[in-house]
Amino acid sequence: MRRASTHLAFGVIALCCAAVAAYDGLKLKHAHDVAQAVAVTLADTGNIVRTRGGSGDASDPPEVQLARAMVLSKAGAYADAQKLYDGLIQDEGNSDLTHAALFDLGNMYVHQATGGSSSGPVRSLPLLEQAKQRYRQLLRVSPGDWDARYNLERALWLAPEASEGADEPDVKEQHDVKLRGAEAEDLP
Asked: CATH for 7-160?
């Protein structure tokens, strides 16, 4: 009896180990397939940019779509890259890819607004506002993302926001004279 229960326990443990190995094998195969698809995407950079489509196959894994969006962004096809990034952001299946898409989209907006030069003049304030919005959206989900914090600070430095209800009074309030007990009609 004791020997049979030992063999049974060993058999259960062996089956569990085989299941874990099969699961890891499937994950490894998926990672290998994605790596090949990304390599093909990166090798086919010129074709992606020339066709200006960039949407690729809808059955592509999200990792490939992210790589395609990055290629389009670096090539200057910002509208196509934005479509791919927005599609990845809407798909909430993989939070890591959503975070990467938000971060890269914010970076693309900053790069586009500054014309690729971090020391150059700002060309478009609405793009910087979009970048700040994406960084804030990312920080709401992942407050510990220091890269997003840094890039948000950089975007705020390039395009400071006017604070509502600032400590400084309005210019009209600074010049109005107020006397206790007197009304505006009483003054000459």
From this structure: 1.25.40.10
